[in-house]
Specification:
This protein is α/β, with parallel strands linked by helices. Helix content is about 45%, strand content about 15%. α1 packs across α13 (about 275-299) and α4 packs across α5.
Amino acid sequence: MRHVLDIDDLSAEELRWVLDAASQRGSPTVLDGDGVALVFEKPSARTRNSMEMAVTQLGGHPVTIRDDEVGIDVRETAEDVARTLGCYHAVLAARVYEHDKLVRMAAVDAVPIVNMLSDAAHPLQALADLRTLADEFGPLEGRSIAYVGDANNVARSLVLATVAVGMDVRVAAPAGYGFSEADRAVLDAAGARPLVVEDPAEAVAGVDAVYTDVWTSMGQEDEAAERRRAFAGYTVDEALMAHAGPDAIFLHCLPAHRGEEVDDPVLDGPRSRVWPQATNRMHAARGLLWWLAEERGSR
């Protein structure tokens, strides 16, 4: 049984298949008669809407489930949640705080598990990012991207995804906010060795795309003041974008904290592709679910 907990769960060939499927605006009803469970420990407007629409477009029935309805490891274990929902659904997708919960769900092999976000990874976002970059530039091999900010779950999946398609990847993060040793081990195992620097201008110099995310993610609210101090100078503004290539675009996984990690002239400006990127969350999810359905049918 196949699970997608991060981008490196897909081979290069499978990744291309998913991206190609995501580019098709018509899709077969490969989930006809099937339910897909969407479990949210952490709420998200983009994730819920993109996933529900992707399932519907494939002919399936999405069932969104709140945290208080399942209580992972409170009402019942992560393993038993997977077993229970596997009685009714063809796929279980979950947005959780701790990545280990997804690992434990997948270990049961009751139903394919899809990571809608965890503290370690965000593969659906990375798929949407690749689709957006490909829509803009065509073939991605040899293209370059710089991620500016906290080397978090979004950054890790982005690096894995962009390296897999042959892009040059750079990351600018302040001291203490770069990749952890565990993250580096995962990246090394995948052959992903991005240039990591502290100077945003150095990372952005000449790149085709500049990417950022919030400095304070959900669950880190107590660190907000400290993080604002640490990330001073890391705002993606027009001065920083001037170091990028002449046709460089701006990406952000959203929601944005305007005036912190990005200013309005960039977010709302002509280089911004954040709304096509948000739209591609739906297309990427549809491509991945389509691939999972094909995998199930081939067994």
